[in-house]
Design brief:
single chain; 344 residues; alpha/beta; Uridine Diphospho-n-acetylenolpyruvylglucosamine Reductase, domain 3; six-stranded mixed sheet; 12 helices; binds adenosine-5'-triphosphate; Rossmann-like_a/b/a_fold; tRNA(Ile)-lysidine synthase activity; tRNA(Ile)-lysidine synthase
């Protein structure tokens, strides 16, 4: 059997899940997010086989978006019962948006899982994201023009609402999880959305074999994500360390000021990060971060050349008004747009 499609053996499963679920794992136990697909079914099966372990609660979110979703959730409940694990179905109620439905479904899913984990006193939520998910995410973000932060992909572990969100299978090929289910006789569902060409992820999945033939394998894309995650941490630290040397006279409440010469003296990647962070701090929570490509155009195409030439500059970027004058780059929230008066 090829290594890429070998079922997980109990030792390997224990090594991966032990830190989360083992005797010394998460105090209060964990919630397993199980959709009923092969990846999360394998997560549930492997967790059930792990002795001894902290309390485990399995949760399936029924988004109510496909006619068969209720049946799938019931299928997970049945298998959880067979495996001796408690199971809950969480239903996404309320208005479903017409646009960005997948994004809204994901946000609702994490909210529901978090609510359950808090109610159960669990310390962590585990999902079954795989190396294939990671590779697809990186590819999708590459297509969308993401920078290092986006290309760092799915985090192996991160904080979520005061709890931990873990992905213990993130470096495992999906084929191994499918093989694990098959070998153990755990039934799983196949999401038709996975093949629907109207979703970008599904379209990219079809391109994957072509890219792999050229050397851009899922494993390589996943390694790129891990590498960029390390670089991203270094960049964040460098931007943080540069901040004191950039402090310029405060520009009034709700405003920021950066020393222009100091900004220009930084390595370009650090300067870009400082600018992005400053705009994000100014517009906290009010809008989505500006596209990296626009930030790059503004910084490298206009702001740094103006600093070098000593010329003043005004521009709006990411909801902020930037004003370069007197050796300072002032940032203020962009004023509400005025209607242009129609002549005559
Ligand atoms: N309906 C669901 N109920 C419970 N868990 C789910 C559900 N859908 C997905 N998950 C969890 O999320 C993991 C990833 O699923 P999938 O790739 O379909 O979601 P995604 O939308 O890409 O998720 P993410 O936004 O977290 O990347 C699954 O392995 C599972 O652990």
């Amino acid at each position: 059997m090829s290594d890429a499609a070998r079922p997980l053996d109990p030792d390997e499963a224990a090594r991966r899940l032990g830190p989360w679920l083992g005797a010394g794992g998460q105090a209060g136990g964990v919630v397993l997010a199980v959709s009923g697909g092969p990846d999360s079914t394998a997560l549930m099966g492997c967790a059930a086989a792990l002795p001894p372990r902290v309390p485990v609660l399995v949760a399936t979110v029924d988004h109510g978006l496909r006619p068969e979703s209720g049946e799938e959730a019931a299928g997970v409940a049945a298998l959880a019962g067979r495996l001796g694990l408690p199971h809950r179905i969480l239903t996404w109620r309320g208005e479903k948006p017409r646009t960005r439905l997948q994004e809204a479904a994901r946000a609702a899913r994490y909210d529901l899982l978090l609510g359950l984990a808090r109610e159960a006193g669990a310390g962590a939520i585990l999902t079954a994201h795989t190396l294939d998910d990671q590779a697809e995410t990186v590819l999708m973000r590459l297509c969308a023009g993401s920078g290092p932060a986006g290309l760092a992909g799915i985090a192996p572990a991160r904080r979520l609402g005061g709890l931990l969100l873990g992905r213990p299978f993130l470096d495992l090929p999906k084929a191994r999880l499918v093989a694990t289910c098959a070998a153990a006789g755990w039934p799983f569902a196949v999401d038709p959305g996975n093949a629907a060409a109207r979703f970008a992820r599904a379209r990219l999945r079809r391109v994957m074999p072509l890219l792999a033939a050229e050397g851009l394998t899922p494993a390589r894309l996943a390694r790129l994500a891990a590498r960029l995650r390390r670089n991203e941490a270094a960049l964040a630290a460098a931007a943080e360390a540069a901040r004191p040397s950039l402090a310029a006279a405060p520009a009034g409440p709700g405003r920021l000021a950066l020393d222009a010469a100091g900004l220009a003296a930084l390595p370009e990647a650090v300067a870009l990060r400082v600018l992005a962070d400053a705009i994000a701090a100014l517009r906290a929570g009010e809008r989505r971060p500006e596209r990296l490509e626009r930030l790059e155009e503004a910084l490298f195409g206009r702001i740094l050349p103006a600093i070098a030439a000593g010329t003043p500059l005004r521009l709006t970027l990411g909801g902020a008004l930037l004003d370069l004058a007197g050796g300072r780059l002032l940032l203020a929230p962009e004023p509400p747009r005025r209607r242009t008066k129609r002549a005559g």
